[in-house]
Amino acid sequence: xxxxxxxxxxxxxxxxxIANYIKSLGIPVYIADDEAKKLLTNDTIQKKIKNAFGETxxxxxxxxxxxxxxxxxxxxxxxxxxxxxxHPVVKAHFKEWLEIYKKEPIIVKEAAILFESGSDQDCDAxxxxxxxxxxxxxxxxxxxxxxxxxxxxxxxxxWTDEMRLEKSDYSIENxxxxxxxxxxxxxxxxxxxx
Length: 194
Known about the structure:
By secondary structure, this protein is an alpha/beta fold. The protein is built from nine helices and seven strands, in the order βαβααββααββαααβα. The strands form two sheets. Strands 2-5-1-6-7 form a five-stranded parallel β-sheet, sandwiched between helices. It has a two-stranded antiparallel sheet with strand order 3-4. Strand 3 (58-59) and strand 4 (62-63) form a beta hairpin.
């Protein structure tokens, strides 16, 4: 049976870099955030989002992810509302994706909110990626072209590293990529041999 490995970490921890490295090893990787963004173009989901958040987050009938982000990252209740719309659809999509790879010994599901969404319940092992807070802030400022305060608002809306680590089987310190990739190799070897 295929082992499902959950991969998570706070914003800016570098979990997508780790996920891409795992993918380069030939292991199928499902990146939940990417799939959620694709699913945001679905008419049914857009209608639900419009009902929940109003017309103002649409520009020329196209969902403005920037406007939506500003709303949900500043209000935990609105974030919960958005997640309640998107997560059931992502969960169903993941099940379909998993069918394609059911003969693989292991697959990885990368999700920023693995625990918050309850997706950890489907995993055989969980890896949390951590990095120093200043590194995380700098990475997100550069990647998303947003202010330090906006990054801190996003961090504030996520679980802390301590909360994630407490529920994880493994952790990767993502400060130095060479060392981080070595940690990945060691962890994957342990999981495969279990």
